[in-house]
Amino acid sequence: MPRDTTSTRERLLDAGGRQFAATGFAGTSVDAVSRDAGVNKERIYAYFGSKRRFFDHVLTHRLDGLLDGLDLDGHGEDALGRWAGRLWDRYAADPDVARLLAWESLELDEPAAAVQRVSSCSEVASHLRDALAVPDDASARQLLLSVVMLVTSAWTLTALTALVAPGTAAAARRTAVVEHATALARATLLVSPRPGR
Amino acid sequence: MPRDTTSTRERLLDAGGRQFAATGFAGTSVDAVSRDAGVNKERIYAYFGSKRRFFDHVLTHRLDGLLDGLDLDGHGEDALGRWAGRLWDRYAADPDVARLLAWESLELDEPAAAVQRVSSCSEVASHLRDALAVPDDASARQLLLSVVMLVTSAWTLTALTALVAPGTAAAARRTAVVEHATALARATLLVSPRPGR
DNA sequence: CTAGACGCCAACCGTTCGGTTGGCATAGGG
DNA sequence: CCCTATGCCAACCGAACGGTTGGCGTCTAG
């Protein structure tokens, strides 16, 4: 068997994503992750330092994949709505990410710290800023953060909707989420203080 | 010091509510709860059986207090909106309950099992059924569940709103939540299948 | 060809976990 | 006034926790 360190790292991150999403930070043991990955747990400490920092790496990794190449098409608030829709599709394709974000906001000290850290963030934020005429990068970053989290919450809400109304088609729930996220994003824009305006 | 068993139970339930709300089920140790309550941890097992069943007791206890005497005033969808507003006020007065619900839905097997178990539930559900012409008790119970959970999520949403717009007054955030919850409750009613209609 | 750096693992460390046990003190019925 | 049931606690249990260590095998620079 050839030696492949990047594959080892990847297997650990994948297993970490599964385990943390399923049982949270406190509920997941480092042993379980290493067992799931088929790798000795000492590798986690060699690669990532501590359980806590490993969680950050896992979340950042998954968020990078979630936001990679997800750009606004066009300008105006409709573009924001379509963008939220495609973001929704990615959440639906990989429910673990939504759970990871929920866990982080509940049990970790700094809420959504990883969201602000994600590498694709500033790029998407600048697009949002251009399309929506938000003055500076800091507030655009905040806006992006809020929209991401809104869609996350909306995803949970539709899961509930599905529970209440089992027959509802997934497509209908998707459009409901898009409109919901768009409306809330507009409201967020509205209440957000804009200096120099 | 006089012996007072109900006070011992109460102190454990209170401490359990604080600890579970702060760090979740897996993140809370039975020792920490007993230390917080100033009671030996063996009492938890004598009174409630296991850590898991103790969590159920804590959540049911807090939910009973949350929903106690919270009735619909009047009829129609506006009444539902006002009801959601008062529910929101109670959530705001005791944020622990919202966190407990969020924890349960994330990390425990059966989502919202305690919500369906709460003693005040059927009473409130019958009021909702009358006001909104929902056919049978089962679907009314589901409706109540969804509304409660919607408002719970709304709590997360406003926490985010506060983060994005720190200067926004709490009152403004409340009305936003009420409208939000009302609209979503109406949507839930809309997509919910109603037999015999 | 060889020396050392490095990926990797088995085994181990002290601590904390959920849960149990034995006994002391007290309350209340006879 | 005693006897039993019960509230309560200190101490304990095996297991599992996050984290570390020593050494084995394998790549690679010189």
Automatic annotation (TrEMBL), chains A, B:
<protein>
    <submittedName>
        <fullName>AcrR family transcriptional regulator</fullName>
    </submittedName>
</protein>
<keyword id="KW-1133">Transmembrane helix</keyword>
<dbReference type="Pfam" id="PF00440">
    <property type="entry name" value="TetR_N"/>
</dbReference>
<keyword id="KW-0812">Transmembrane</keyword>
<dbReference type="InterPro" id="IPR001647">
    <property type="entry name" value="HTH_TetR"/>
</dbReference>
<dbReference type="InterPro" id="IPR036271">
    <property type="entry name" value="Tet_transcr_reg_TetR-rel_C_sf"/>
</dbReference>
<feature type="domain" description="HTH tetR-type">
    <location>
        <begin position="6"/>
        <end position="66"/>
    </location>
</feature>
<keyword id="KW-0472">Membrane</keyword>
<feature type="DNA-binding region" description="H-T-H motif">
    <location>
        <begin position="29"/>
        <end position="48"/>
    </location>
</feature>
<keyword id="KW-0238">DNA-binding</keyword>
<feature type="transmembrane region" description="Helical">
    <location>
        <begin position="143"/>
        <end position="165"/>
    </location>
</feature>
<dbReference type="InterPro" id="IPR050109">
    <property type="entry name" value="HTH-type_TetR-like_transc_reg"/>
</dbReference>
<dbReference type="InterPro" id="IPR009057">
    <property type="entry name" value="Homeodomain-like_sf"/>
</dbReference>
<dbReference type="Pfam" id="PF17926">
    <property type="entry name" value="TetR_C_21"/>
</dbReference>
<dbReference type="InterPro" id="IPR041467">
    <property type="entry name" value="Sco4008_C"/>
</dbReference>
